Each structure stands twice: as structure tokens, then as C-alpha cells.
């Protein structure tokens, strides 16, 4: 059987492809192959993830990570997750392809997943509804709900100062038929890859017909 390994975030690339008129097929292929370099906003988001993963104090007002200084300009309290930064995989058979979907999340407490997000505009809860990443997380980890911890940041291009000025939690819940929709989206992505990037699909000697 043929095999394909995807990250949960790859599932949302088709959403962006449909939404951004300037994105080409070649752009999407590069994203799926993870060949796109990190931009400044992505680097800032990664830095703030590092702060929350291993905070060195109970109250954070200002902290510097990877050359960026983060200034917290809001009041909020939340407990850290019981389990931090964990990864798991789950396999899905889509036609003649065995897809291994990788989920790497920021934390789990009980039966709830936590995922940190940094945005540079006012958070729009509806935009998170379209994502298949949280659906994949819930299915991979067998959880009932995912809480997006969304931090709104202000940053001037070229500056090393990032002001975090707002925070809110946006929750997504599992629902009946979610897995069917998830597998459907995986199938759409497999079809795209078969047509435009078949080299991503590997041949396997293992027998998965049992």
C-alpha cells in the first residue's frame, strides 16, 4: 500500500488555497512540502509558544526570547496544562493510501486540548470554525474539546518589541459526523497531492489489507 505522512496543519492549506486568490498550485505544493521559510509573524508566534511552554515566573510582564521582547499589556490568569507539548499520530486509509496524520499540540488537561495562537488582528471566532486542525487533534487524541488560547499582538515590522494586548479563549467541540468530515478533507488533500505532488506518496512493502 502507498503511504503518506501529513501534519494536522497541512489539512488547512486547502482552506487558505481557496481563500487567497494570489496563491498558486505551486505555492500550495511548497507549503505541503514545508519548503516555505518562516516569516517574522511565524517566528514571533514560535517565540511566545516557548514562553508559555516553560515560563520562568508566575507573572509575566516582559520577557525576551530569541531576540524578541514580549510585553504583556493585559490582565489574565490561567493554569498551565497538565501535559505540555505532546505529539501523537493516527492512521487513516484513504483509497489506496495509508495516511499517517501527525498532531502536535501545546497541552492537555483532562479531556481538553489546548493550542496557543498569536494573531495580529482582532480574533474572529468564526475563522477557527473552518479549521480542520482542531478536528484532527480531537480525533487523534480522543478528546472532546479544544481550547484556542488566542493572544492578540501588536508589532511594527523590523522591531524587536512585541506587545501582547489582548487574550481570549475560543473553544471548539467534537460533534457527531466530525470524523467523516475529517476523512473527507484528508481525501481531498490526497487527491491534490496525487495530481500535483505525487512524489510525496511513498510505496510500502507492508500489507495493510488484514
Label the overall shape: globular
Order of helices and strands: EHHHEEEEEHHEEHE
Estimated helix fraction? 25-40%
The DSSP helix count reads 6
Radius of gyration, taken over Cα atoms and rounded to an integer in Å: 19 Å
Provide the low-confidence segments as ranges.
none
What features would you describe in this structure?
- The structure is a single chain.
- 30% of the residues lie in helices and 35% in strands.
- The chain has six helices and nine strands; from the N terminus they run βαααβββββααββαβ.
- The chain has helices at 13-19, 25-32, 40-53, 125-129, 133-141, 178-196, and strands spanning 2-7, 62-65, 68-72, 83-94, 97-109, 112-119, 145-155, 161-173, 202-203.
- Strands 1, 2, 3, 4, 5, 6, 7, 8 and 9 form a nine-stranded mixed sheet that branches.
Keywords:
210 residues, 9-stranded mixed beta sheet, 6 helices, globular, 9 strands, alpha/beta
Compact overview of the structure:
It is built from six helices and nine strands, in the order βαααβββββααββαβ. The protein has helices spanning 13-19, 25-32, 40-53, 125-129, 133-141, 178-196; strands spanning 2-7, 62-65, 68-72, 83-94, 97-109, 112-119, 145-155, 161-173, 202-203.
Show the helix and strand layout.
Layout: E1 2-7, H1 13-19, H2 25-32, H3 40-53, E2 62-65, E3 68-72, E4 83-94, E5 97-109, E6 112-119, H4 125-129, H5 133-141, E7 145-155, E8 161-173, H6 178-196, E9 202-203
Parallel strand pairs: 1-5, 3-8, 6-7
Antiparallel strand pairs: 1-9, 2-3, 4-5, 5-6, 7-8
